[in-house]
Design brief:
Number of domains: 1
CATH class: Alpha Beta
Low-confidence stretches: none
Order of helices and strands: EHHEEEHEH
Distance between the termini: 51 Å
Radius of gyration: 16 Å
Mean pLDDT: 90
Length: 148
């Protein structure tokens, strides 16, 4: 079962959301507080959405945070998958498919033209391909001090 948390429920789940966010986004200690402050503000103001996936025993197995964003070039709305965290080491393809259908239906309801996300996690890459996502770009970064 997948449930969208309402803004008023966020404080009750905040510790779990923080845990998942830090684990998924690999935030350094130096940037942790500003990152968490922004995330909390976005969730409490409904600028971001939090979905929890419970198993048949109502045990939390996955958490996702999304944002409805706009493409500045085309003007189209899209659903950005910001945080995706699994509390179980192995999740069946059927569970991933069920969640994706739920999220796709949410995106349609919000009149989004597409869904996108990014991750450094190779398992997320595999799941994305399995679900039918296509790679649209690659990111590269280097600290300025590392330039030779």
């Amino acid at each position: 079962m997948i449930i969208r948390l309402q803004a008023r429920q966020i404080p009750e789940f905040w510790d779990i959301i923080k845990f998942a966010a830090v684990g998924a986004d690999e935030i350094t200690e130096e940037h942790l507080q500003p990152y968490l402050n922004k995330l909390l503000q976005e969730l409490l103001s409904d600028k971001a959405q939090c979905f929890v996936h419970l198993d048949e025993n109502r045990v939390l197995i996955k958490l996702m945070v999304t944002k409805i964003l706009g493409n500045h070039v085309t003007g189209e709305k899209y659903l950005g998958m910001e945080i995706l965290y699994s509390f179980k080491p192995t999740i069946s393809d059927d569970v991933w498919r069920e969640e994706f259908i739920f999220i796709r239906n949410f995106a349609i309801k919000e009149q989004c033209k597409y869904i996108c996300g990014r991750s450094r996690n190779p398992r997320i890459w595999e799941i994305s391909q399995f679900l039918g996502f296509k790679e649209t770009n690659r990111s590269f970064s280097m600290k300025v001090g590392d330039i030779k």
